[in-house]
Specification:
By secondary structure, this protein is mainly β. It has a domain at 32-139. It is 10% helix and 51% strand. The protein has helices spanning 2-26, 125-132, 174-177, and strands spanning 34-39, 42-47, 52-58, 63-71, 74-82, 89-91, 94-96, 105-114, 119-124, 142-144, 150-154, 159-163, 168-172, 180-187, 192-199, 206-212, 218-223, 228-233, 237-242, 254-259, 264-269, 278-280, 286-294, 297-304, 310-317, 323-330, 335-342, 345-352. It is globular. It comes from Anaerostipes hadrus. This is WD40 repeat domain-containing protein.
Length: 354
């Protein structure tokens, strides 16, 4: 009987140990936050959790980069090739890039890479422009769907969309038909294009929304006396940040948000300058906002979107000058990474949700 009791106790202890192990696994934190940037004549992929370089991609002597876009499974980089060698200079410790004039560019392409910066494909934009006898999109900024299958350009009159799988172009004029001039477009998911701009003759108001490529329906909203600065998206939400007023050193404190699942919009009110650096959480419950009034520190807050109350606040102090660049989701949305630049490159501080 004693042997049976002892065995049962051992089994219980073993099971308890297994339960703890599972709990530890569930709470395991993200070890990699990869960021692709340019440094001199190289693309550099760095892990911001330990500041180690994961991989590099060397550019040719006549090449330079344009936009860098992160995809679900890698990266997309705009690369220009000039008719002369491009020589970057280092002035007072900072790299000054030698960028060619439009007349000097002989080739434009978009290269796709996987998560470890291995090249997977190249789209020759110069060749596509010649085939179409249309150079409107050659030097125009572009956006790429998260799955990498679609590339879209805002050419002014139309949205020009190229499907990498079918090798075909499609033109869309639904935005301009609504008397909207889109200043910026970005994919929100693989089949929607988020945008902001102006409607009609009003330049004080911002018109924003998204265009559904599948059903060709457009969803638009107006924010009165509001000047948009950047357009942001995740898998479900679209949100806009405004810019800091250099005279008043503040911003509107308003962050317009669209839920693409419901098609509805709402406005989140923050503390002045915070609206210039803010993002909604993946579950749509909170707003994470960073404010910087001192060059050697910044503050991060977590807001409850329903009542706009501050749930958590944390200040980050440094010995040298820093600048907040971005707020990203990490650890499956349980915490957020505050990416900031220093004289040694980009770094990251983790902000855990309450």
């Amino acid at each position: 009987m004693k042997k049976i009791i002892v065995c049962m106790i051992c089994i219980c202890i073993a099971l308890a140990g297994c339960g703890k192990e599972k709990s530890v696994v569930k709470e395991k934190k993200q070890k990699e936050v990869l960021r692709l940037t340019t440094k001199g004549k190289e693309l550099v992929l760095k892990n911001l959790m330990n500041y180690k370089v994961v991989n590099k991609y060397k550019l040719g002597k006549k090449q330079c980069t344009g936009s860098i876009i992160e995809l679900d499974q890698g990266y997309c980089v705009q690369i220009y090739e000039a008719n002369r060698e491009l020589k970057n200079q280092v002035i007072q410790g900072a790299v000054v890039e030698d960028t060619p004039d439009e007349s000097e560019i002989v080739k434009a392409s978009i290269k796709l890479f996987d998560k470890k910066l291995k090249e997977t494909d190249t789209v020759d934009i110069t060749r596509l422009a010649k085939e179409r006898k249309d150079e409107d999109f050659l030097m125009t900024s572009f956006t790429v769907s998260p799955d990498g299958t679609k590339i879209a350009w805002n050419t002014g009159e139309n949205i020009l969309c190229y499907n990498r799988e079918t090798k075909k172009f499609t033109k869309y004029n639904q935005i301009t038909k609504k008397d909207i001039t889109a200043e910026n477009i970005i994919f929100a998911g693989n089949d929607k294009l988020a945008f902001y701009g102006t409607k009609g003759e009003s330049e004080e108001d911002t018109c924003y929304g998204y265009f559904d490529l599948k059903n060709k329906k457009i969803h638009t909203f107006i924010e009165k006396k509001y000047e948009a600065f950047s357009l942001n998206v995740d898998k479900r939400y679209i949100w806009i940040n405004d810019g800091e007023n250099p005279n008043t050193k503040t911003a509107s404190g308003k962050v317009p948000v669209i839920d693409t699942k419901t098609g509805k919009n709402h406005l989140v009110h923050l503390d002045g300058i915070e609206s210039a650096k803010a993002r909604i959480t993946e579950d749509g419950k909170y707003m994470i906002a960073a404010s910087q009034t001192d060059e050697k520190s910044f503050r991060v807050r977590q807001y409850d979107i329903k009542n706009e109350k501050v749930l958590k606040e944390k200040k980050y102090d440094f010995h040298k000058s820093v600048h907040v660049n971005d707020i990203i989701s990490i650890n499956n949305g349980k915490s957020y990474g505050i990416i900031y630049s220093t004289d040694q490159g980009d770094k990251l501080e983790e902000f855990e949700l309450r």
